[in-house]
Amino acid sequence: MIRFYNGKLLSLRDGSMAVTNDEVWTKDDRIEYVGPARADAPVFEREVDLHGDLLMPGFKNAHAHGAMTFLRSYADDLPLHEWLFDRVFPLEARLNADRVYAFTRLAILEYLTSGITAAFDMYMYPDSVAQAGIDCGFRTVLCGSLTANNDWEELASEHARFNGVNPLLSHMLGFHAEYTASVPMLEYVAALAQKEKAPVWSHHSETRSEVDECIARHGKTPTALFDDLGLFQYGGGGYHCVYLTKEDREIFLKRGLWAVTCPASNAKLASGIAEITTMRGEGVHMAIGTDGPASNNALDMFREMYLTCVLQKLRENNAAACDADDVLRMAARDGALAMGLNDCDCIAPGKQADMIVLDMSRPNMRPPHCLTKNIVYSGSKENVRLTMIAGRILYENGEFFVGEDPERIYAEAEREVAAML
């Protein structure tokens, strides 16, 4: 058992933003106790004195292509078409299973420094992504990335193969996007979702041209097309969701779908700014993702939270738009619910011990007028003191505990990149 004491706690239980002085005990991969100090406390394997720092649930990266670390800063400041077709696609064609494993481990180290305790990853070679997470002790939700040109049956195989084999791993049905799909393929996914009673995810209304071209092909938006084909009978959602119409948002509400915003990526690629204030006001479920390091370029939830807030204020021409507390809740609690990680949403007895400690003694956290707003508006990776997943401390005070020397992980990733160029 591990005891965290002498600090502050943001449990996010029931979505509450209340900060308390409770201590937390973990046992194996679960939270054992939350409350005041007790005279009958057991003997602990370790006691972590927080010295006034904040313990809270870890952030959940609700949309990522982690292995794209190999493209970080390789194809920047280019028009979208040139970036994608001349730089990204040719290098991706040289990927293999070993390379995706190496690049995903690099991403996991970056996640841990940002207080991210789970990622919703959509990429090639999912077995390699899964193994990287298992080997590092990192929680991974895999998302199918089916296209019309793939073997459609592989999606069903992945769903069966990755669910239930390891407590750190799960799989969601998914396809890449409408523009890489065909109607027969979408009908296949819908039938599989109905058979499995499972949610479905995809890139969704990311650019205006994506939506306009879908309307030209099918006479309706991607959201309406997917709903008409029965893809959302058991929920799911979309990544980006920059260009949802009012009718689209009504479908999201009716089906209980999740919209995952990726503000840094959408800004860097000039895709647009999602209508987060409108969606939240209407009750649409929302979470936050980083997208991939080729289009971001960082896997940094602090930056995503900040941009989520300030871009909405700019878009709405309203400094009161998009409350920071709501955004913090989206990043830590709601992301877990979107990803099906219902035991990772808050700090409460019986929940998974996926937690982070944020250093409140750093100058960017002073004065402590409002801890939660400080995290969103002035927080950064320098504040991440500790990251725990499933009861294991994987990062603490700048050191990694992922089963291998991080320098070897860096060297392997850079060796594989060099071999691809």
Question: What does this 3D model show about the protein?
Answer:
- There is one protein chain.
- The radius of gyration is 21 Å and the shape is globular.
- The chain has 14 helices and 19 strands.
- It has helices spanning 80-92, 97-113, 126-136, 153-162, 183-196, 208-218, 222-228, 246-255, 263-268, 276-282, 301-316, 324-338, 371-377, 406-420, and strands at 2-5, 8-10, 19-20, 23-27, 30-35, 46-49, 54-57, 59-64, 116-121, 139-143, 169-174, 200-204, 236-240, 258-261, 285-288, 355-358, 384-389, 392-396, 399-400.
- Helix 2 crosses helix 14 (406-420), helix 11 (301-316) crosses helix 12 and helix 12 (324-338) crosses helix 13 (371-377).
- The termini are far apart.
- 38% of the residues lie in helices and 20% in strands.
- The chain is of the alpha/beta class and 421 residues long.
Brief descriptors of the model:
421 residues, alpha/beta, seven-stranded mixed β-sheet, 38% helix, globular
Q: Ranges with pLDDT <50 over ≥5 residues? A: none
Whole-angstrom Rg: 21 Å
Number of strands: 19
Which sequence of strands runs across the widest sheet? 8-9-10-11-12-13-14-15
Count of DSSP H/I helices: 14
Ends apart, CA distance between termini = 47 Å
Which sheet architecture does the biggest sheet show? 8 strands, parallel
The helix/strand class is: alpha/beta
What kind of oligomer do you see? single chain
What proportion of the residues is helical, as a percent range? 25-40%
Overall pLDDT level:
97
Q: What's the shape?
A: globular
